[in-house]
Write a structure and sequence with these properties.
The chain is an alpha+beta fold and 341 residues long. The protein has 4 domains: 107 residues, NusA, N-terminal domain (N Utilization Substance Protein A, Chain:P, domain 4), CATH 3.30.1480.10; 62 residues, Beta Barrel (OB fold (Dihydrolipoamide Acetyltransferase, E2P)); 76 residues, 2-Layer Sandwich (GMP Synthetase, Chain A, domain 3), CATH 3.30.300.20; 79 residues, GMP Synthetase, Chain A, domain 3 (2-Layer Sandwich). Helices cover 35% and strands 29% of the residues. The protein contains 10 helices and 15 strands. The strands form 4 sheets. It has a 5-stranded mixed beta barrel. Strands 12-13-14-15 form a 4-stranded mixed sheet. Helix 1 crosses helix 2. The longest helix is centred in the N-terminal third of the chain and has 32 residues. The protein starts with a helix and ends in a 7-residue tail after the last strand.
């Protein structure tokens, strides 16, 4: 059997269009012909197929095997070209689809492997209810946001342009290999680095970050240049740099505080915007007792304890807050972030 020149040209054009090696397409064609022969009634127990790419000649050899699987005889069987060609075409189409999918996956892996921790921008295309994940188009690939990596209660509508953090490139598993996140603290950190050149050139360092995704993030920054205000650099003129991030996070609050070597001063910074009267630290238990005026108590604690809880994560100290004066005492204990985010 011989391939026509038009078929050869179509295969080579398809390989070029789909980004698949021509050799791979010919391998799929050989496999398709073998599969087609084995599906013919009365076919031999085994077969092999040869293809001469230059001449286009395809030959099917039926084989007889011994009990050990060795070939004891081989011949060219009589084949109904019309039926055989139809079956071979179906098999080739299936194998070609697999080859194209595998080639595309390999290309994506080559482009994205090792890029964990980078920010990407894409467009939301759909929500896959089977796997409870959102799919975004990166132009040269697709990525997925698992439900566990989404910002709580965030609505990602089809067509939305969003940023996300690459967290994993799955080389072995099937499906889309690029996994991204929008709820991790590192996501906010990377966006801040994008907006603040002082962070990328080393003038300002981000020393700590604590986040409750969808609600509030606190970051502690330090300046290596005494002439540069680290908070001002991150916030930007009239809050322009922080505003870009808050807009991306759909209104999530972002507090920038100055990191201090003095732990008392650092805890005071971290509990802002509340005014703190006194801080007593116990280094053995990594805890701090904080005293504030009664009118500052709710501000220091925050709604449902959030301000104190984030301050504890940011500083690494367990924090107890109590009021000063004769009014009823209120306390909150905020656990330190001894575990990784």
């Amino acid at each position: 059997m011989k391939l026509g020149s038009d078929i050869k040209q179509a295969i080579e054009s398809l390989a070029l269009e789909k980004g698949v090696a021509v050799e791979s397409m010919y391998e799929a064609l050989v496999s398709a012909f073998r599969s087609a022969y084995m599906r013919i009634p009365g076919a031999a127990e085994e077969a092999r197929v040869t293809l001469n790419p230059d001449s286009g000649e395809i030959t099917v050899y039926a084989q007889e095997l011994d009990n050990d699987g060795n070939v004891i005889s081989e011949w060219e069987p009589d084949i109904n070209d019309e039926d055989f060609g139809r079956i071979a075409a179906q098999s080739f189409k299936q194998m070609m689809t697999t080859k194209v999918r595998d080639a595309k996956r390999a290309t994506v892996l080559d482009a994205y492997i090792g890029r964990e921790g980078e920010l990407i921008t894409g467009i939301v295309t759909q929500f896959d209810s089977r796997f409870n994940q959102t799919i975004i188009d990166l132009q040269d690939a697709e990525a997925v946001i698992p439900s566990s990596e989404r910002i709580p209660f965030e609505r990602l509508e089809r067509g939305n342009r969003i940023k996300a953090l690459i967290t994993e490139i799955r080389t072995e598993a099937k499906g889309i290999p690029i996994i991204v996140s929008r709820n991790r603290a590192e996501f906010v950190q990377r966006m801040l680095e994008l907006e603040v050149p002082e962070l990328t050139d080393g003038t300002v360092e981000l020393r700590a970050i604590a986040r409750e995704a969808g609600s509030r993030t606190k970051i502690a920054v330090f300046s290596n240049d005494p002439n540069v205000d680290p908070k001002g650099a991150c916030v930007g003129s009239r809050g322009s740099r922080v505003r870009q991030i808050v807009n991306e996070l759909k209104g999530e609050k972002l507090d920038v505080v100055e990191w201090r070597e003095d732990k008392v001063r650092f805890i005071i910074e971290a509990l802002g915007p509340a005014d703190i009267e006194e801080v007593e630290i116990d280094e053995d238990t990594k805890s701090a007792k904080v005293v504030v005026r009664d009118n500052q108590l709710s501000l220091a604690i925050g709604k449902e304890g959030q301000n104190a809880r984030l301050a504890a994560k940011l500083t690494g100290y367990k924090i107890d807050i109590e009021g000063l004066g004769d009014s009823p005492q209120e306390e909150i204990e905020a656990e330190s972030n001894e575990e990784e985010e």
